Task: inverse folding
């Protein structure tokens, strides 16, 4: 029998390893436009120790290891570019510690956002984590590894800024801890120890996160969404500036899309407002609409389109089926908020060129310190031509994003190359050194962030 | 039929594999798809299964025993139908059944499925037991043969043959006798209802079974049917009309809930004992009956504690889609039935109530394997009603 | 040519100018009201055009059977004095564009219930009250083919209504319907008030939903168990276009044994739910909408209402939640009627 298979079976149990065509097929596919690439093995470990043993074995055999969470990042980031072992981490989904008073929760990295939300809802309803708009099967690990952002991005930043501690299996197999947990204290802070933050933003190519302590935030009783609409894209940064000045919102998302028609050539700004009482809600609305935004309303250039809409958590996304074709992929970019008008115009141009109805969206990060701006392209999975069109549009968007001064978020390999082409050479060399130091045999998700 | 005629050709590619289908209603965990809970590999999730079926249809992958097992590991519990937010969600289980149709057509079946279907064809039950032993469950009970009474009491294969399910079949009969309603049973003339045959994709056999039963029912003048099993309930209610069989069908819990005053028992008082209830998929998600069983349980004086996953979000016992015999989901600590009894145990209940002979046997076996016999008893609601005081 | 049939002479002859003096949102005496109406008729600017909250009520108040509200909206559009900010107008106008293909048209026999743009509320149309009815516009993706367009009265966009209504009527005609019950007051108003006022031909007869419910309930009289609730009714703006049918509210209430509580904002004095005021340009509009809601709910509470009955889904959307938070149960009229005939509502 194949020695790698045998080793894997011995580590995770026969049940949770496969080299059968059915599993290799399943794990060869990303949900987006990426071409399929088959792993040689799939394994689903249960513990950090098992991950560590697999990684050590992989170093001996010089076989790649590709960590996989929900597999929903869309950019082909967990496709085994060089074959090897795909590690499905979703069995590592335990909740280890909830510390209510210190507002953190320690979880295994493969836990889904849906499970965490549900757990908090049940056991600590006054606490929440920042949940991305991704399908709830997305994992906490996969999300922080790619610097995701969620519905608390406006007050608290990137989800990867909300980490209080981590446990990581290094590419050479050692299990390391970072933050206060590393010195045997609770998992309540990542700072102030020497900074070893070498694992986020690397698409899993520098190590496998196995435990994460996540900051939790107040979850208020009443949670509602209001919507403000403008037609002139130039106004969006101003409106967001006003709203972030008020600081009353929990999430701010501006979007525009061709279909359904009511969103076409208009900019909707979704404003999540929360409070423990109606008075608190009204106070917040008063500050935002009657004070900060009053002049836009009275000038007739902006208006309140809806108030008090219920917010569902997890959010349900139907966006994959716009073309009745089961597919879409987006380029995410991190942009200054002031770039919104240009992002919108350029994105729309690309969509028109590729005959895809345009869909753009920007989520405010911090006090309008930045924005995750996405350009989505729907395709029909059964029609390769539309997949090709979408892929081309994505590539064109990657170029455009960099051209107008943005940064690509969770770039696919294509985008990673574009980013690295522009990177300061000293920084690039440091990246290479770090990678070589941590992963001497280049087994960890190779092909990602690879400096040539 | 060739693969090119696959009925859902136009929609099967629309699954995005977002994974909503893995969750229960309250998003409690990714383990509400029984096959995915058991195997935890994407290929066994509904999305994975749909993508594999499509790959088989397009020739990207070839049929294999393993592929067939993945397809047949679907318990047809409809959790995915419940959770998928896309407009084609109602067809998800149908898409999987349609793939089974193809496999049947091509004769490419896993051995246990083949055996299951053969047994039904030859013996009228999936166990391959002789048809003349079908009436064994009635021994010693004063049940009339059906001869024009108001209701037919239909027990189905599990109730008729499985020794544990027989007790449930008898308990229901005892209660029905107590209500004084007029009913009869078919004894050895009863034959498989065909629900699982449909779920296993053997269309031709479904037709045969249904038409035979319909003819028999019509000949006997049967208009109203009470079933022990939600599976039979589903077959009579939702499959038979396709073949011209229109009957008024009731699950026994639906009949009893209106006749509670007639079945007053003076068994033991519940004294605050706790019971939890496991929704069978073919009563719950397939037919939206969540209340009748609960109404009965509440009448027993037991304290009903819900498991976190209940009603539309209930975890299937893993017995559906023929799996109570074919057993593609068994053999592991993470078999759905074992997960479910652990969940039931965690509520602090001492009784796990069921309303389906299929769930009854699946869960009782799981209790044994988990070593929980001392702490948790699996009982049919009818058994609980008989033993308790109302 | 689609044109409003507004009779100036009637207006000149009017002794009361109730249209504006009764307005709950403007403060005008008879003389001032007459003067402002004259300006409006002549096509001149008037503060009324700016201050109108578009509650439709003047259409009902007018004792001469004229159409003051349609005139006001026409003038708002002509003079570019729109009540809402431009982006909201654009959004609203685009909202009504059908974009998911044409509906499947089947010829229908017998009475038809038109869901209009509320196809997602067909779950309300259940049980014996609705047996034998054929529903049309039941597919949310196609519902804008049945959208009566009167919403644009709030938007200062008579032109959009006039441009589109003919096509909508045509869709009904394709079904070959002769009698249509309209789920929403607004659709009923479109075909029985607006269309005649603008000389638009409607080739079918319209039945008000409440009139239908009332008659249906009378045939099911034996099934009715008096509910004995105290209820308030949230009268929608579009009910002002069919004042003659408003009486069915109380007739239904009487039949099903509920008490329509006496309160300040009842009948003619009904308050707007605030939904259309909320987004208006005029300074303080949002606060006004909140204040109206507060006053309205307070009034219901003081009158001891246990239920607040709605017909308009938009009113339900804006007021349902705050009503419930004030321990008054929001309920659709149809559901209330279903309860009365012993049906369980979900
Ligand atoms: C409709 C839709 C909406 C979305 N909206 C958002 C949004 O609002 N915000 C947002 O942030 N994202 C969003 N996403 C993107 C993405 O789904 C999420 O970021 C998601 O959290 C990624 O997690 P995952 O578990 O699916 O990661 P995967 O796709 O499994 O993995 C992502 C990367 O991380 C690596 N990886 C995974 N787990 C680990 C680990 N434990 N250790 C080391 N490396 C690991 C993988 O190798 C891969 O490179 C959206 C996606 C979709 C389809």
Result:
């Amino acid at each position: 029998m194949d020695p790698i298979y045998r080793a894997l079976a011995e580590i995770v149990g026969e049940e949770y390893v496969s080299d059968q065509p059915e599993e290799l097929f399943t794990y060869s596919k990303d949900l987006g436009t990426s071409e399929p690439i088959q792993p040689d093995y799939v394994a689903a470990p249960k513990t950090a120790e098992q991950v560590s043993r697999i990684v050590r074995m992989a170093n001996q055999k010089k076989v790649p290891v590709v960590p996989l969470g929900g597999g929903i990042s869309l950019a082909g980031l967990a496709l085994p570019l060089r074959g090897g072992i795909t590690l499905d981490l979703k069995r590592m989904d335990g909740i280890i510690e909830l510390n209510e008073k210190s507002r953190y929760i320690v979880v295994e990295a493969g836990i889904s956002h849906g499970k965490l939300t549900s757990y908090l809802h049940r056991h600590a309803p006054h606490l929440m984590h920042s949940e991305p708009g991704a399908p709830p099967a997305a994992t906490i690990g996969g999300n922080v590894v790619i610097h995701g952002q969620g519905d608390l991005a406006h007050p608290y930043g990137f989800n990867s800024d909300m980490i209080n501690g981590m446990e990581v299996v290094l590419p050479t197999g050692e299990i390391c801890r970072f933050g206060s947990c590393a010195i045997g204290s609770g998992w309540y802070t990542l700072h102030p120890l020497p900074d070893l933050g070498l694992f986020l933003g690397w698409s899993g190519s520098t190590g496998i996160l196995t435990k994460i302590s996540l900051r939790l935030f107040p979850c208020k009783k009443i949670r509602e969404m209001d919507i403000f609409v403008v037609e002139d894209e130039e106004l969006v940064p101003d409106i967001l500036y006003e709203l972030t000045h008020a600081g009353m919102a929990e999430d701010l998302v501006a979007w525009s899309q061709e279909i359904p028609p009511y969103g076409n050539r208009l900019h909707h700004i979704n404003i999540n407002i929360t409070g423990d009482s109606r008075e608190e809600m009204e106070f917040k609305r008063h500050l935002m609409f009657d004070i900060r935004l009053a002049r836009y309303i009275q000038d007739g250039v902006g208006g309140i389109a809806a108030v008090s809409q219920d917010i569902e958590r997890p959010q349900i996304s139907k966006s994959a089926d716009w073309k009745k074709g089961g597919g879409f992929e987006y380029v995410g970019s991190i942009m200054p908020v002031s770039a919104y008008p240009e992002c919108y115009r350029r994105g729309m141009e690309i969509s028109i060129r590729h005959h895809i109805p345009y869909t753009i969206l920007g989520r405010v990060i911090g006090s309008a310190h930045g924005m995750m701006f996405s350009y989505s392209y729907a395709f029909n999975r059964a029609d390769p031509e539309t997949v090709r069109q979408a892929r081309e549009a994505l590539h064109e968007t990657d170029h455009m994003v960099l051209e107008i001064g943005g940064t690509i978020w969770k770039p696919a390999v294509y985008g990673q190359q574009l980013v690295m082409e522009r990177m300061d050479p000293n920084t690039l060399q440091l990246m290479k050194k770090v990678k070589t130091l941590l992963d001497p045999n280049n087994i960890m998700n190779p092909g990602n962030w690879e400096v040539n | 039929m060739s693969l090119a005629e696959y009925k859902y050709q136009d929609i099967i590619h629309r699954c995005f594999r977002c994974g909503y289908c893995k969750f229960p209603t309250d998003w409690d965990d990714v383990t509400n798809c029984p096959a995915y809970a058991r195997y935890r590999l994407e290929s066994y999730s509904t999305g994975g299964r749909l993508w594999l079926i499509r790959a088989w249809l397009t020739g990207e992958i070839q049929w294999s025993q393993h592929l067939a097992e993945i397809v047949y590991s679907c318990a047809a519990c409809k959790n995915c139908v419940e959770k998928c937010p896309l407009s084609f969600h109602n067809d998800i289980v149908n898409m999987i059944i349609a793939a089974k149709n193809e496999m049947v057509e091509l004769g490419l079946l896993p051995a246990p499925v083949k055996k299951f279907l053969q047994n039904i064809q030859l013996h009228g039950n999936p166990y391959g037991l002789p048809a003349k032993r079908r009436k064994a469950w009635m021994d010693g009970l004063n049940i009339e043969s059906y001869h024009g009474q108001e209701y037919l009491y239909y027990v189905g294969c599990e109730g008729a043959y499985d020794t544990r399910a027989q007790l449930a079949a008898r308990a229901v009969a005892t209660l029905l006798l107590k209500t004084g309603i007029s009913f009869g049973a078919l004894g050895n003339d009863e034959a498989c209802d065909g629900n699982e045959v449909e779920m296993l994709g053997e269309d031709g056999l479904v037709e045969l079974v249904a038409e035979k039963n319909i003819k028999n029912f019509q000949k006997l003048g049967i208009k109203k049917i009470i079933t022990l099993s939600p599976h039979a309930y589903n077959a009579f209610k939702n499959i038979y009309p396709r073949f011209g069989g229109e009957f008024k069908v009731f699950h026994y819990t639906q009949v009893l809930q209106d006749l509670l005053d007639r079945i007053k028992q003076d068994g033991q008082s519940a004294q605050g004992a706790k019971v939890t209830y496991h929704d069978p998929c073919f009563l719950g998600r397939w037919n939206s009956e969540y209340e009748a069983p609960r109404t009965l349980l509440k009448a027993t004086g037991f304290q009903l504690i819900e498991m976190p996953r209940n009603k539309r979000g209930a975890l299937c016992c893993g017995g559906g889609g023929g799996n109570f015999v074919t057993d593609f989901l068994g053999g592991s600590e993470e078999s759905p039935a074992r997960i479910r009894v652990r969940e039931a145990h965690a509520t602090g209940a001492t009784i796990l109530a069921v309303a389906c002979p299929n769930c009854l046997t699946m869960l009782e076996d799981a209790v044994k394997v988990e070593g929980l016999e001392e702490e948790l008893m699996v009982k049919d609601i009818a058994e609980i009603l008989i033993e308790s005081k109302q | 040519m689609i044109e409003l049939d507004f009779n100036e002479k009637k207006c000149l002859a009017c002794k009361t100018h109730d249209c504006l003096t009764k307005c709950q949102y403007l403060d005008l005496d008879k003389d001032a009201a007459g003067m402002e109406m004259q300006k409006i008729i002549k096509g001149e600017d008037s503060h009324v055009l700016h201050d109108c909250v578009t509650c439709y009520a003047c259409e009902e108040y007018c004792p001469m059977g004229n159409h003051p509200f349609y005139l006001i909206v026409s003038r708002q559009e002509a003079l570019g004095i729109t009540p809402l900010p431009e982006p909201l107008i654009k959004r609203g106008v685009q909202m009504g564009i059908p974009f998911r293909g044409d509906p499947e048209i089947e010829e229908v026999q017998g009475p038809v219930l038109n869901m209009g743009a509320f196809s997602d509320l067909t779950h309300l149309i259940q049980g014996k009250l609705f047996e034998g009815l054929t529903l049309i516009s039941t597919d949310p993706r196609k519902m804008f083919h049945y959208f009566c367009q009167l919403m644009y009265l709030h938007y200062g966009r008579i032109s959009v209504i006039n441009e589109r209504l003919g096509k909508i009527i045509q869709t009904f005609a394709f079904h070959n319907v002769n009698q249509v019950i309209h789920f929403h007051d607004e659709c009923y108003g479109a075909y029985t008030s607006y269309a005649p006022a603008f000389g638009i031909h409607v080739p079918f007869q319209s039945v008000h939903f409440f009139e239908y419910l009332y008659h249906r309930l009378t045939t099911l009289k034996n099934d009715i168990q008096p509910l004995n609730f105290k209820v308030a009714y949230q009268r929608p703006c579009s009910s002002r276009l069919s004042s003659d049918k408003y009486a069915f509210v109380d007739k239904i209430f009487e039949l099903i044994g509920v008490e329509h509580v006496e309160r300040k904002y009842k009948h003619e004095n009904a308050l707007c739910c605030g939904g259309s005021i909320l987004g208006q340009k005029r300074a303080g509009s949002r606060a006004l909408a909140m204040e109206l809601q507060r006053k309205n709910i307070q009034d219901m509470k003081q009158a001891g209402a246990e239920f607040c009955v709605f017909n308009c889904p938009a009113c339900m959307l804006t007021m349902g939640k705050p009503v419930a938070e004030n321990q008054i149960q929001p309920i659709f009229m149809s559901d209330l009627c279903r309860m009365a005939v012993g049906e369980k509502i979900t």
Summary: The two ends of chain A are 36 Å apart (CA to CA). Chain A has 13 helices and 19 strands. Chain A touches chain B at residues 15-16, 18, 20-23, 25-27, 29, 31, 42, 44, 70-72, 88, 90-91, 93, 112, 114-115, 117-119, 121-122, 135-137, 314, 316-318, 320-321, 324-327, 380-382 (CB under 8 Å).
